[in-house]
Write a structure and sequence with these properties.
The chain has 21 helices and 28 strands. It is an alpha+beta fold. Among the domains are: 187 residues, 2-Layer Sandwich (Aldehyde Oxidoreductase, domain 4), CATH 3.30.365; 143 residues, Aldehyde oxidase/xanthine dehydrogenase, molybdopterin binding domain (Aldehyde Oxidoreductase, domain 4), CATH 3.30.365.10. The strands form 6 sheets. Strands 4-6-2-13-10-11-12 form a 7-stranded mixed beta sheet, sandwiched between helices. A 6-stranded mixed beta sheet has the order 8-16-15-14-9-28, sandwiched between helices. It has a 5-stranded mixed beta sheet with strand order 1-27-26-25-17, with helices on both faces. Helix 19 packs across helix 20.
Length: 749
């Protein structure tokens, strides 16, 4: 594991140290409360009835027998959920995704829900609900959904040229220059098509919540989520509640990776509680998580790249087709923005097609939409390098974006880390290690935007000098430790003196979701300003105590110090001393900040991967893996390394094992961890990491988000490694044994 600080010259005392995590003891002893651990007196069990069909008209729902069952307290169908969304199409889609309205649009779509006194009664009630369906034509494949004559899923989605109903809900284009002119300059042009299958975030903790609405239409929701403020807004709007009258508390989170940024069960749990006038707890089964919560997109991508003999890329295009599930989204738009972001290309164009299919509504998954174009483009980069007899790493170094490069999606880059990560990869011992028979090595680059967003924090100093930091960004990857380090750094006190807590929606102003790698970046920025806010108050108290002007007081190393003529002999006043005297100098001492934390600082990584492929069985083993990424500033290096390793591990699963398998009936065939196989420890090598620090100029500490970029290169790095091991280009993930053997056989034929 490396930690290269050569790019940053800011001196820190506690930031950058590897301190104990504040939630560690609770998590290893089982005291930590997750979504399913919430309890309220008199709570009911909520269960959902889900469609067994990929696409069907709901002709009739008969709940009369279920309602008469002793112990059933409420039943909800779409008839109990008036549409209050107005002209907000996105909100209408969320409502219909939470509970089917007239049609079931995918296998697993919720059609009814019950609340009963126990699980046994709730299960019995579901069996008593009678639904008559009329099956409709369905389509689950992205390319088939775009063909003329494909079943149309929504009449309101129209082809923008013909005006006829279509499954293509959005077309996005990015780039600059003249690609045809670029290809005319090229000595070599390679064009290829790639496919990636749909994957799930695979979080171990299923969706769970406890909902309680009182008769006065005020309510509480305890929930596993990446953004309790966003959940509050959505649920309140769907149910016609005042936002301020719904208090949402986030639990510890057993994994989210983007999949817990959307509501699935929560509005229905609240509606059940309102109808039953009792608290209702809902916990999804694993089958429901797979069939009815948001996976990533399946994709089909065409890439064309042209280059001169010296390796200069002259032109590049990508056509990207993404499944959105049963409702419109913007996932191909993100994919088309990301496609060529790692490279400085004069003539470049990418077009994204967002396509509706009879699958669950797509949700974010760690750098959403980015791994798929990276797989396609980084594979073609290797093919170009082979054609030009260049080393793949050298081709990437030659064309890497740099400060001043116009990004393929529009802006001009400031200081960025793609070049340094590639240089570090080239010089890494991994690149010099010898390979054996049936082994192959691959390299690949990756990019993620990062996001700032609305953020609000409170910093309260206790009378003993301890500090309570309240943040509104859910801690999904260790942000409480990082934010406590930042507060301690600003105040000049030990880390152990600070406790960071995630506040509920009644405790703070609005905070956006913890997504887009924004947690430490945005809440870190707000924490710095809140601490400086508090320092001003501390200086004022010291000035009052000494009876000197405020400008004669500075804050240094955890204490107020008097400066200027005649003041140098005064002993400093520590944070503890000022806190103890606070009741007599003006009351509680606190700092507060709210900010829209823009300019989150783009993130780049380069990965190296070695694999061994058994030519007889097609089984692939990853034998060595290295992640090199720019963190801007690693506030807590352990957590940064954990994020880099976690993203790589998920990418390895996506590349080799994981996929949604749909039958001809449009139903999901593998909704469980037995048949949808995520990597376990025995599948993975030790994942080596090297952190670079190219400071983000738009953050006081130079921080960039780190959590997402590490999942972007693995599909391509493994694809290149497997292709080099077997001597055949792999163009379809996951690269399962069956696909590898077929590729070998096809090449022989």
């Amino acid at each position: 594991m490396g930690h290269d600080s050569t790019y940053t010259n800011q001196k820190f005392k506690v930031v950058g140290t590897r301190v104990n995590r504040p939630d560690g003891v609770d998590k290893v002893t089982g005291r930590a409360k997750y979504g399913a651990d919430a309890y309220a007196p008199g709570q009911l069990v909520g269960l959902f009835l889900r469609s067994p069909h990929a696409h069907a008209k709901i002709k009739k729902i008969d709940v009369s027998k279920a309602e008469k069952l002793d112990g059933v307290k409420a039943i909800i169908t779409s008839a109990d959920l008036p549409d209050l969304t107005g002209d907000d199409r996105d909100l209408t889609d969320i409502l219909e995704n939470c509970m089917a309205r007239g049609r079931a649009l995918y296998d697993g779509h919720a059609v009814a829900a019950v609340a009963a006194i126990d699980m046994q009664t709730a299960k019995k009630a579901l069996k008593l609900i009678k639904i008559s369906y009329q099956k409709l034509p369905h389509v689950t494949d992205v390319d088939q959904a775009m063909e003329p004559g494909a079943p149309i899923i929504h009449d309101f989605v129209r082809d923008r040229k013909t005006g006829k109903p279509s499954n293509v809900c959005k077309i996005s284009q990015f780039g600059h220059g003249d690609v045809e002119a670029g290809f005319a300059e090229a000595d070599v042009i390679i064009e290829k098509t790639f496919k990636t299958e749909q994957t799930h975030q695979g979080y171990i903790e299923p969706h769970a919540c406890l909902a309680n609405i009182s008769s006065d239409n005020t309510g509480e929701l305890w929930v596993t989520t990446q953004g309790h403020f966003g959940f509050r807004s959505t649920c309140a709007e769907l149910l016609g509640m005042d936002v301020a009258k719904l208090k949402v508390t986030s639990s510890e989170i057993g994994g989210g990776f983007g999949g817990k940024t959307h509501v699935w069960i929560e509005p229905i749990a609240l509606a059940l509680s309102r109808k039953a006038n009792r608290p209702v707890k809902v916990v999804m089964s694993r089958d429901e998580v797979f069939r009815a919560s948001g996976p990533t997109s399946a994709t089909s991508i065409d890439v064309k790249i042209g280059a001169k003999k010296d390796g200069t890329i002259t032109g590049a295009t990508a056509d990207l087709r993404y499944t959105n599930g049963a409702f419109p989204g913007f996932w191909a738009m993100l994919g088309s923005m990301i496609s060529f972001a790692c490279y400085d290309i004069k003539h470049v164009k990418s077009i994204g097609y967002d396509v509706i299919v009879n699958r669950p509504k797509v949700a974010a998954y760690r750098a959403p939409s980015a791994p798929m174009p990276a797989f396609a483009i980084e594979s073609v980069m290797d093919l170009i390098a082979a054609e030009l007899k260049m080393k793949p790493i050298e081709l990437r170094i030659k064309n890497a974006a740099k400060e001043g490069t116009r990004a393929s999606y529009g802006p001009t880059y400031g200081p960025i880390g793609i070049g340094p990560t590639l240089d570090a990869a080239k010089n890494h011992p991994h690149m010099r290690a010898r390979l054996k028979k049936n082994q192959g090595r691959g390299v690949a680059c990756g990019f993620w935007f990062n996001f700032g967003g609305q953020t609000c924090v409170d910093l309260n100093i206790g009378i003993d000098g301890s500090v309570n930091l309240i943040v509104g960004t859910v801690d999904v990857g260790g942000s409480r430790a990082s934010l406590a380090l930042i507060a301690a750094e600003e105040l000049g006190i030990p880390y152990e003196q600070v406790r960071a807590n995630v506040g509920d929606t009644a405790s703070l102003g609005h905070n956006d979701m913890t997504d887009g790698s924004r947690g430490t970046f945005s809440s870190g920025m707000a924490t710095i300003f809140a601490a400086r806010n508090a320092i001003t108050v501390l200086r004022e108290r010291a000035a009052k105590t000494w009876d000197i002007p405020l400008e004669s007081v500075i804050w240094k190393e955890g204490a107020a110090r008097a400066t200027g003529k005649g003041n140098s002999n005064r002993p400093p006043l520590s944070l503890k001393e000022l806190a103890a005297s606070a009741p007599n100098t003006g009351g509680p001492i606190a700092g507060h900040n709210e900010v829209v934390a823009d300019n989150a600082g783009v993130s780049f990584a380069s990965h190296i991967c070695d694999v061994e492929v058994d030519p007889e069985t097609g089984v692939t083993k990853v034998i060595r893996y290295t992640v090199i990424q720019d963190a801007g500033k690693a506030v807590h290096p352990d957590y940064v390394e954990g994020q880099l390793q976690g993203g790589a591990a998920q990418g390895i699963g996506w590349a080799l094992n994981e996929e949604y398998v749909y039958g001809d009936d449009g139903c999901l065939q593998n909704p469980g961890f037995l048949d949808y196989r995520i990597p376990v420890c025995s599948d993975l090598p030790f994942i080596d990491t090297q952190i670079l620090e190219i400071p983000n100029p738009d953050h006081p500490y130079g921080i960039r988000g780190v959590g997402e970029t590490s999942i972007v290169p693995p599909l391509a790095a493994i694809g290149n490694a497997v292709s080099n091991a077997v001597g055949v280009r792999m163009n379809h993930t996951p690269m399962s044994p069956i696909r590898i053997l077929k590729a070998i056989e096809d090449s022989k034929a």
